[in-house]
Write a structure and sequence with these properties.
This protein is of the alpha/beta class. The chain is built from seven helices and nine strands. It has one domain: Rossmann fold (3-Layer(aba) Sandwich), CATH 3.40.50. β3 and β4 form a beta hairpin. The longest helix has 29 residues. The protein is globular and about 55 Å long. Bound molecules: hypoxanthine.
Length: 272
């Protein structure tokens, strides 16, 4: 925190986590200072080459924001606690609202690649199995030992997010996000299972950050870019399909509109 405070006088009101392919978020903030993660003591070093990332603090639509461009994942071998370092730092800097974005696979048959889902609730499977960022001693100064996860995705902010996304020309969905640890994608049986227990989309991030944010009392907006549909049956052809490339390509097309939508969302949030 001292490094960030020394670099800028700006105190962020809104924290943003930019997910896979969405690093256009935070690329051109006004008065922005860029702090590569490897200059921030305690930030978990990325193990994915070329994905190091940076924290940017600046103004978006006149509102001071902090944007974490790139995040740590469980599948990199990080603990759930480590993956929440950025959110905890942005909260300590003053942010009281979190906008968290990710790339996700669609499980709901009505979804199409390119849709953006406003997250209504989540299924944090690794968290239910022990990989929860709050495991260990509780910091009572931040939040309670047993935080509620009712209304984890702030109900009042979801319609605002929907409006901003629709105004930017995006196809808006609403649904439940399931987190898996990854890095392997789901088998068709796993995809059917996730759908059966209520998931509309699946990804490999976000839930630990939301749990940490809610623990600290932050308001949360979660947005999933549906980059691909998850097969629930074995396809006829064997091999040959590069799902990671599809995820990145769809993210790139939607990202441009999403950047505009998030800027508008930040303005609306600052007024609410
Ligand atoms: N599964 C899990 N995570 C993902 C996917 C998927 O299909 N697409 C993007 N992130």
């Amino acid at each position: 925190m001292a490094v960030v405070r020394a670099a800028t006088e700006l105190r962020p009101e809104v924290a943003i986590v930019a997910g896979s392919g969405l690093s256009g978020l935070g690329a051109d903030l006004d008065d922005g200072v860029r702090l590569p993660y490897d200059t921030l003591p305690g930030w978990p070093a990325s193990t994915v080459l070329g994905h190091a990332g940076e924290l940017v603090v600046g103004r978006l639509g006149g509102v001071v924001v902090a944007v974490a461009r790139g995040r740590a994942h469980l599948y990199e071998g990080r603990t759930a606690y480590d993956t929440t370092f950025g959110v905890r730092l942005m909260h300590a800097l003053g942010a009281r609202t979190l906008i968290v974005t990710n790339a996700a696979g669609g499980l709901n048959a009505d979804f199409a690649p390119g849709d953006v889902m406003v997250i209504r609730d989540h299924l944090y499977l690794p968290g239910m199995a022990g990989l929860n960022p709050l495991v260990g001693p509780n910091d009572d100064a931040v939040g309670p030992r047993f935080p509620s996860m009712l209304h984890a995705y702030t109900p009042d902010l979801r319609p605002i997010a929907r409006r901003c996304l629709a105004d930017a020309g995006l196809a808006v969905r609403d649904g439940v996000y399931a987190m898996v640890a990854g890095p392997s994608f789901e088998t068709p049986s796993e995809a059917r299972y996730l759908h059966a227990i209520g998931a509309d989309a699946v990804g490999m991030s976000t839930c630990p950050e939301v749990v940490a944010a809610r623990h600290a009392g932050m308001r949360v907006v979660g947005l999933s870019v549906i980059t691909n549909l998850v097969p629930i049956q074995e396809p006829h052809e064997v091999g040959g399909h590069d799902l990671h490339a599809e995820v990145l390509e769809t993210g790139r097309v939607v990202a441009e509109r999403l950047v505009g939508a998030v800027a508008e969302l930040v303005r609306s949030i600052a007024r609410s």
